[in-house]
Amino acid sequence: MSEEQENPQENRPIDLNKNETPPFGPLNSGPSVPPPFQQPPPFGQFPGGMGMGQQNLPNATAALVLGIIAIPACCFYGVFGLIFGVIAWILGAGDVKKYNLNPSLYTESSYKNAKAGKICGMIATILSVLFIVFVVLIIAGAITNPEAYDKFFKGFN
Amino acid sequence: MDRQLHNFLDWLGHHLFACPFKTHFGFDCPGCGFQRSVLSLLKGDLLESFKLYPATIPLLFIFIYTIVHLRMDLKIGAQVIKIAFAGVAVIILINYIYKIYNHQLIS
What we know:
The complex is a heterodimer. By secondary structure, chain A is mainly alpha-helical.
């Protein structure tokens, strides 16, 4: 993280340099990004979720949306559900990790979103995998033992 | 107006997407029934909708709730979505197993 080098805010006479460096463009350029691993500014952290200087995690919303889309997508061969689920899982996990590195930098609500996205992705992935395994078993069964397949599906009448 | 709506729903009922999985493999996927279920929900028949696909109402709830949550940033939004999502997954799973046991996969 490049921001760790520029710790003390007061000691820096030139503010221009700082304003250009943050990699994720902050929406609200309030009091510039608080230095990581230090006491958070007295007003910032808790009172408002939309704390000043804090920003949303970059992939939280994407992870949440993908994780939720993954369940309907599970019905197209199960493969799409797997893809969406895994992507949501990875994005969510990455963001959770990022938040844990320096929690003061990001909003708590986006952290919750990322976590929810991660869990939704996990569930969708599990469901898709179950379905794919089921299909593979069925096809294998149909090839090796057609009569049992018929019985299984059409009942015994 | 009412008749128009009914006609439209009838028309929609004849133009649903065919499940690609079912056309290829011949038996239902875990999502089969969803469109019919939504259709009967639009007609106002809750019970029929539930019979066709039990997860429809919670699923639609999650969609709408997520949109609202992303817009307004609700406090317990993420928590609710997580729980509802797990519930939907369980419902879908149980529904599918039920279908297998009752030989309803081929219909």
